[in-house]
Amino acid sequence: MFEGEALGLKTMHDTNSIRVPLPYKVGSLPTGGSFIIMEFIEFGRSRGDQSVLGRKLAEMHNAAKSDKGYGFYVDNTIGSTPQINTWTADWIEFYSKHRLGYQLELASQQFGDSAIYEKGQRLIKNIHPLFDGAVIEPCLLHGDLWSGNISSDTNGEPVILDPACYYGHNEAEFGMSWCAGFGGEFYSSYFQVMPKQPGFEKRRDLYLLYHYLNHYNLFGSGYRSSAMSIIDDYLRMLKA
């Protein structure tokens, strides 16, 4: 877990865009367990300026593109759930298999939830039209961007931490927006650097779905209805 975190932090740090704590060392403790040592950043009093956060995040997405396709150098974790990052040439295939498909299988194994599994698989088979006209590139993503992982330093510059990095479609970065508090200023600054793609609004819930499924698998049935309602809405929209 710490090795994946350290590699993600270092990869984001190397873009020279948004501030992240530089990792120094990861290792095993003689008494069992592990450690990670990283740069100390003193946080300011607020989460910083939303428009600056949007611009800097877009600069990171714009600066770091992968020539290996979609994925990451190692598998890592989203919360405590394994996140599979096998390099894949096609984004829809990657997101279907290693994001939505993986979480649906977990829900089926953990809870015997065949209903969400079967409907989710039906959705996966029918998502291609949601990407019509969109230009998709493998951008470096933080991967778990919610309010607990966003802060600012004492100069008011935004800081992001505790990532679940991979190279993916930039819009997937907003998958935790339901608990990130991104406002209009954030998005308008972001889209000045990374222009909004056709169909952005239609795909938005598809990226929320991964995180709702993960919360269902981590924290239980309280999140099931949110995930199922997104699946049902898409099945209606796509007439699947």
TrEMBL record:
It is found in: Plastid, Chloroplast. It comes from Zizania palustris. Pfam families: Fructosamin_kin. The keyword Chloroplast applies. This is Protein-ribulosamine 3-kinase, chloroplastic. It catalyses: N(6)-D-ribulosyl-L-lysyl-[protein] + ATP = N(6)-(3-O-phospho-D-ribulosyl)-L-lysyl-[protein] + ADP + H(+). InterPro entries: Fructo-/Ketosamine-3-kinase. Its EC number is 2.7.1.172. It is an enzyme of class 2 (transferase).
